[in-house]
Structure formats: structure tokens, C-alpha cells
Specification:
The chain is mainly alpha-helical. The chain is 68% helix and 5% strand. It has 17 helices and four strands. A four-stranded antiparallel beta sheet has the order 2-1-3-4, with helices on one face. Strand 3 (413-418) and strand 4 (421-422) form a beta hairpin. Helix 5 packs antiparallel against helix 7 (132-174) and helix 8 (176-224) runs antiparallel to helix 10 (235-284). The radius of gyration is 34 Å and the shape is elongated. The protein starts with a helix and ends in a 21-residue tail after the last helix.
Length: 502
């Protein structure tokens, strides 16, 4: 649990400072609860036997305040006061719910942005070790789990605990023996339930995340390769993959939902039984109904307030257990970002350095989890004005060599220099020189214009440069034939174009 809390606070980052105002609001609510519940007993006693109440402390208080002693006016005044306190409390609680919901949703914005940044800056060798569905799943699903199952739930747990402590303090002052019985019964239900299911919930969280990731992977592969899959007649295979993962997801989600929703009904049963036992106990002890009524009223209203709190605490413990795996994955990915060598998010638009030489000297490289040297003592010199072709059989290291030249991979031995300086020191300037056409063309699901001017905001696109690029690449005639010209959408990965046009 200590490690879990450490990871949660790490993920909160600088946002931790915003928790203190929320805690202050929780204390305000607890005070309003105390005031409201504290008036319930006297109000009921006043309604049942107003004269005896006026003979005591209440009568002295009325005299000091200067209120009229008319019973009808007093009952209206006390009823209105009690209602007003509960109204103010309701407004404050709604505001608190908005505040913590807004806080948790802002966590999603921050974490999704940070994760995207972390994944974009991953070492290329690390990127190759993972499936793209993992990144999508973490950003879309796990961040949502963390914000809603952990942050939102955790804050509500803290708030409910503060309010519960305040209510228990009031009940202890009213009747310590009855309170002790109530606490024991609630403790057995809440902590016994958590103890019984804690390991199951942790496992359900892990299995649900694995199944969810598998669904994303199956859908992504089945849709991305639809053309080839349909021709090969393998549609059923990918359908089965998604269905199997969906069945596993549903299996664990069903059990999680049942475990989450069951405490409410157990607590209802417990609290009704508690009030019945209270009445039976009073009857056996010879206590009169009129004496018992204020206590019953106070504990009855307190029970109504405590039941959602107890149910919430039980649910929140369940959700925190369930969200454990999501927090661990996010913590691992974001903490790794601190160790990653930072690269600029965009290329610097300074005047590029004139190319002279690119020299590889005695390069060695091996991919992680393999022992075979892909490149061993490889040397190459490229000078301005030369045209170089790299030829070799499949698996001979051509792509690896290009990835090293691009600065995507770092050699294990040897060195790469650009214009006489280490490549990693001048990587941005070097990439400003590079035009890269891979075997699998990358296009975004957007217009011709936004693909040609990739990364430039649409309102800042230079139309003259756009037309010049289309003309040089012999695409002017194609664009003229498209229904919306340069504003025609190309579809995912440019599916509406031929291979050559892509």
C-alpha cells in the first residue's frame, strides 16, 4: 500500500498542491454535518414534548436570543433553521463534487499529454519492443481508470472519512454504547469485505487490462490489414481474436461490478437491523418510547448519512484495489521519461548547415533480446555530391544502417560524425537536411494539403510552396481530378490513393 500511494502521488505531480483547498472544503462539510445532525435530536424532542424542552437549556437560549415563546412560531423557526443548514450543506457538497471531478479530469489531460510525450521520445529500440495497441490502451483506457477509479475515488474516500469521523464524534457524545455497536458492525462489513476480495480485485484489474489491450490490438490489426485479410480469407481468425478478448473482459468486469455494487445492500440490511435492535434493546431495558425517540431520530438520520458514506468507502476500497495495475503501468512509463534523452518536439527552422560529410567508423549494433550482431565493424563515408546505393540480401542490416544514419538508433561501438562532429550533438541540424521515404508510407487521415504540409497548422500553410511541392512530385493532375482538390480527405493511411500516389 505504501508503494501504491507513492506511485499515486508521483502521478499527481505538481497538482498535489491543489489538494489542500479540497481538504478544507471537506472539513467545512463535516462541520455542517455536525451542526445539522446535532439539531435533529433536539428538534424531534421539541416536537414530541415542547414544554419540557423549553424548561431546560433550550428555554434559556430562546430568552437570550430574544425569540418569541409561541410554540408554532418556534417550531417553524427551528424547522426552517434545520432545513437551511441541510440546504447549505447540499450546495457545498455539489460544489465539492464538481471540484474533485474537475480535478480528476484535468489529471487526464495532463497525463495523456505526458504519456504521449513519453512515447514519442522512447528510444527507438524500446519502441520496437512494444505493440502500438499498448500505447493506445495506456493513453485512452488506463489514464481514464487512474483519474476515475483512483484519483476521484481517493478524494471521495478522504472526504467521506472526514465526514464519518465528525458524525461518529457527535454520536459518541450522544450515546457511546450505541455508537460502539454501530462501528463494530460497519467495520465487519467494510473491512471484512475488503479483506475477502482484495487479492481477487487486484487480479481482476490485471486481467481486465490485458483483455482490453488485446481487444485494441485485435481491432487495430483486423481493420488495418482488412484488404490483405479479406483476400487471404482470414476474417474469422481476427473476429475470433476480438471476440475471445471481449469475453475475457466481460467475465472479469462482471465480477468487478458485482463486488462493487453488493456492499450497498449488505449495509442497508445492517443499518435496518441495527435500528431494530436498538428499539428491542430499549424495550427490554424498560426505556420509554419518548426517551428513545430523540436518540432513534439522531441515529436514524446519522445512519441515513452514514449508509452512502459506508457504501462509498467500501466501493472506493474495491476501486482502489482494482486500479492498482493501471497505476503501476502508468508510473513505470512516466518515470522512464526522466531517463530518456530529450529531443526537440519540432525541428528548428534555422538556416541548415551545408552538408559536407557523413562518416560511419567501425559501427557495431545488436538489437535488444538478440545476440546476433546486425552490423559489425561497418564503415562508410558519404561526401557532398555523391549518390550512394546500399545493396544486400534480406536481413543483412540495410534498414538498421539507415536507422543509424537517421539517428533513430545509437551504435554500441564505433562512431557516426556529421561534418566532423558527433552526430548526436548535431542531430537536429542533420535531420533538417534529410528527406526520408520509407517502404511503408506514413499518411495521416486528413486532406492532401495537410499531408503535404505535415505538422504545419492549416492557417499557416504557404499555398505557393504547397502547389510547388505538388508540381515537383507530379501530383498536380491527380489533385485536379479529386472532388475537393487539395482539401480532399485521403482516408486512414491514404487508403483512397494508389500505392504510387501515396
Amino acid at each position: 500500500m505504501k508503494k501504491y500511494l507513492t506511485e499515486i502521488f508521483y502521478l499527481l505531480g505538481e497538482e498535489r498542491k491543489k489538494l489542500w483547498p479540497i481538504l478544507v472544503l471537506f472539513f467545512i462539510v463535516s462541520l455542517l454535518d455536525l451542526l445539522g445532525l446535532g439539531l435533529v435530536g433536539p428538534y424531534i424532542a421539541f416536537i414530541v414534548d415542547p414544554k419540557s424542552m423549553l424548561d431546560g437549556f433550550l428555554g434559556n437560549l430562546i430568552t437570550k436570543i430574544g425569540l418569541p415563546e409561541d410554540l408554532l412560531l418556534l417550531s417553524i423557526f427551528f424547522g426552517t433553521t434545520l432545513f437551511s443548514i441541510f440546504l447549505i450543506k447540499a450546495i457545498v457538497i455539489i460544489f465539492i463534487n464538481f471540484t474533485i471531478a474537475n480535478f480528476s479530469q484535468n489529471q487526464q489531460i495532463r497525463l495523456r499529454s505526458n504519456l504521449m510525450n513519453a512515447y514519442q521520445k522512447l528510444p527507438y529500440t524500446d519502441y520496437l519492443q512494444r505493440n502500438s495497441s499498448e500505447y493506445i490502451h495506456s493513453i485512452q483506457i488506463l489514464v481514464g481508470e487512474y483519474a476515475n477509479q483512483v484519483v476521484l475515488t481517493g478524494l471521495r474516500t478522504v472526504g467521506d472519512t472526514i465526514v464519518a469521523i465528525a458524525i461518529f464524534a457527535l454520536l459518541a457524545w450522544s450515546n457511546g454504547l450505541v455508537l460502539t455497536l454501530l462501528v463494530i458492525l460497519l467495520g465487519i462489513i467494510i473491512f471484512g469485505y475488503d479483506y475477502f476480495f482484495r487479492n481477487k480485485l487486484k487480479n481482476y484489474g490485471i486481467q481486465t487490462n490485458l483483455a482490453s489491450r488485446s481487444i485494441v490490438k485485435g481491432v487495430s490489426e483486423g481493420i488495418e490489414g482488412l484488404k490483405e485479410i479479406r483476400i487471404l480469407g482470414k476474417l474469422q481468425f481476427f473476429l475470433n481474436k476480438v471476440r475471445s478478448s471481449a469475453e475475457k473482459f466481460a467475465y472479469y468486469q462482471t465480477r468487478y461490478i458485482v463486488i462493487t455494487t453488493s456492499p450497498r445492500y449488505l449495509l442497508e440490511l445492517l443499518l435496518v437491523g441495527f435500528l431494530v435492535l436498538l428499539v428491542i434493546g430499549a424495550a427490554f431495558s424498560g426505556q420509554s418510547t419518548s426517551e428513545l425517540l430523540p436518540v432513534l431520530g439522531l441515529f436514524g438520520v446519522a445512519a441515513m448519512r452514514l449508509m452512502p458514506i459506508a457504501n462509498g468507502l467500501s466501493n472506493q476500497l474495491v476501486r482502489l484495489r482494482y486500479g492498482r495495475n493501471a497505476v503501476s503501468i502508468l508510473y513505470k512509463d512516466l518515470s522512464n521519461l526522466e531517463e530518456i534523452k530529450t529531443e526537440p518536439l519540432t525541428l528548428i527552422s534555422d538556416k541548415p548547415e551545408e552538408f559536407e560529410t557523413l562518416i560511419l567508423d567501425q559501427i557495431k549494433f545488436t538489437y535488444p533480446s538478440t545476440e546476433r550482431l546486425v552490423l559489425n565493424q561497418t564503415s562508410l563515408s558519404i561526401r557532398a555530391g555523391e549518390s550512394i546505393g546500399i545493396i544486400g540480401p534480406s536481413g543483412s542490416g540495410k534498414t538498421t544502417l539507415i536507422d543509424l544514419l537517421l539517428g533513430l538508433l545509437e551504435p554500441e561501438g564505433g562512431s557516426i560524425s556529421y561534418n566532423g562532429d558527433p552526430l548526436d550533438k548535431k542531430l537536429t541540424k542533420w535531420r533538417n537536411q534529410v528527406a526520408y521515404l520509407p517502404q511503408q508510407v506514413f499518411l495521416i487521415d486528413d486532406t492532401v494539403k495537410n499531408n503535404v504540409a505535415l505538422g504545419v497548422e492549416e492557417q499557416k500553410i504557404n499555398e505557393k510552396l504547397l502547389l510547388k511541392a505538388l508540381h515537383k512530385s507530379q501530383l498536380t493532375q491527380l489533385v485536379e481530378q479529386l472532388p475537393d482538390g487539395v482539401n480532399t480527405f485521403l482516408g486512414e493511411r491514404g487508403v483512397r490513393l494508389s500505392g504510387g500516389q501515396r
